[in-house]
Structures are given as structure tokens and as C-alpha cells.
Amino acid sequence: xxxxxxxxxxxxxxxxxxxxxxxxxxxxxxxxxxxxxxxxxxxxxxxxxxxxxxxxxxxxxxxxxxxxxxxxxxxxxxxxxxxxxxxxxxxxxxxxxxxxxxxxxxxxxxxxxxxxxxxxxxxxxxxxxxxxxxxxxxxxxxxxxxxxxxxxxxxxxxxxxxxxxxxxxxxxxxxxxxxxxxxxxxxxxxxxxxxxxxxxxxxxxxxxxxxxxxxxxxxxxxxxxxxxxxxxxxxxxxx
Length: 239
Ligand SMILES: NC(=O)c1ccc[n+]([C@@H]2O[C@H](COP(=O)([O-])OP(=O)(O)OC[C@H]3O[C@@H](n4cnc5c(N)ncnc54)[C@H](OP(=O)(O)O)[C@@H]3O)[C@@H](O)[C@H]2O)c1
Description:
The chain is α/β, with parallel strands linked by helices. It has helices spanning 2-12, 24-35, 47-55, 68-78, 105-130, 156-176, 204-220, 222-225; strands spanning 15-19, 39-44, 59-62, 85-88, 136-140, 182-187, 229-231. It contains 8 helices and 7 strands; from the N terminus they run H-E-H-E-H-E-H-E-H-E-H-E-H-H-E. The chain has a 7-stranded parallel β-sheet with strand order 3-2-1-4-5-6-7, sandwiched between helices. The termini are far apart. The model has no long low-confidence stretch (mean pLDDT 95). NADP nicotinamide-adenine-dinucleotide phosphate (NAP) is lined by residues 20, 22-26, 45-46, 63-66, 89-92, 114, 118, 140, 142, 188, 190-191, 193-196, 200.
């Protein structure tokens, strides 16, 4: 009987992987999905963040998306798992200067590696884990990565990194869409986190509530959402 009930529980539980869950938007994703009873796998870099995430009921894995050894260890750990949703949320803003100031090599590399290289390393490891469930692979990008919508030259390294991430996700939608996955890019709004600052427009609660609705819609309507760029309110953003 117990085995039977456990079987039912496993069948009903949905599993989500959240990459970059230590604070800000990632941490709020963990809170809300746990609150709704999801099985959450949350990645972090520091041990102290692992304890915080475990206290929320998440299963934790260590992952630095810029470190090949860390990525390899994570890939081994995630390989046997089946996922319904994966979110690549890890991101770095880097230099705030406009295109009038050339970026330092180290700062450029840090942003590009965290925002683009990490996503490109992890797509081949994670996408196969979503196929069985026809899952959703969501990437937290930014409106600042929209070339069509660009109205300022500031933070150009970040803008370039998110535009590159958008291109990578579009490619993922073409590669994995025919296999049943819905891959999409989301803009969370301007949110009160370490990156967004206290003056930002909205709270993490509002942003994540909205992005979860976008993810749920992507799970139901792959045809309209695979390869799309949406804000947290579900509005389409021009590339
Ligand atoms: N806040 C906004 O207004 C806003 C607007 C548009 C887009 N976004 C995007 O939303 C996402 C989350 O931003 P946030 O506002 O929550 O920023 P945040 O408070 O600065 O948090 C950034 C998260 O990314 C993780 N991270 C950074 N580099 C990593 C790496 N190499 N490996 C693994 N994890 C890494 C951080 O982990 P550690 O704690 O270990 O550093 C942290 O969990 C980012 O992709 C960001 O670009 C935010």
C-alpha cells in the first residue's frame, strides 16, 4: 500500500531545476514552486546558500556555470533525472559603462561566461532530461538584450550578453522544439534584487508570479511559446 501511495506521489509531483537559486529571482522561484508542492532542484555556489535552500525543502546541487569542472560534476548528477521545467536564471550585470568605454577583458569574460557560455554548456546536459515530459526550458534574459527595443547605450556588455543568450535560446528552440520541448526567453521586469537595486519597479514576488504563468502557458502551448521572448506579464518582446 505504501509503495502504491509513493508511486502516486511520484507520478503527481512535478520536478523543476533552477540554476542560480541562491538569492534574488532564483530564490523566489524556489520559494514559490516549493509552496505549490513542486520537487525543486536548486543550484548554488556557496555552502551557506545550500543550507538556506535545503531549509526551503529544495534538493541542492553545487554549480558554477563558468567552471567546466563544476559543470561536469553537475552533468553527472542531473543525468538520471527527469525534469518538467528547467530555468537558467544565473546572470551577472558587469560593467555599467556605455559603448563609449571599452570593457576590461576580465569583466567582459565574466559576464559572457556566466550569461552565455554557461547556458551553452548546460543546454546539451539539461534538454535531454526534459524530452520525456515535453517540458519547458526557460531562460531569464532581459529586455536589455532586445536589439529592436534598445533605447540606451549603457551597460552594453550586459546588453550584448543577453542578445547572445537570446540567439542561443532561439537555436535551442529549433533543435529541441521538434522533440517536444518548449524553449523560451523571459524578461523579469525591473526587479528589486541585488542586481536590480532598491529603486526597481517591482518585487521578486510579482516578477516570479508572472514568469511562472508564462512558464505554465509554455507547457500547455508549445506552438505559441517555443522560441519566444516574453516579459513577466506574458507580453511578447521584439528581438
Ligand atoms: N533584477 C532585475 O531587474 C533583472 C532585470 C532583467 C534581467 N534580470 C536577470 O534575472 C536573473 C536573476 O537576476 P537577479 O536580479 O536575481 O540577480 P542577483 O540578485 O544578482 O542574483 C544573481 C544570481 O545568479 C547567480 N550566478 C551569477 N553568476 C553565476 C555563476 N557563474 N554560476 C552560478 N550562478 C551564478 C548568483 O549566484 P551567487 O549568489 O553565487 O553569486 C545569484 O543566484 C539574471 O539572469 C539577470 O540578468 C534581472
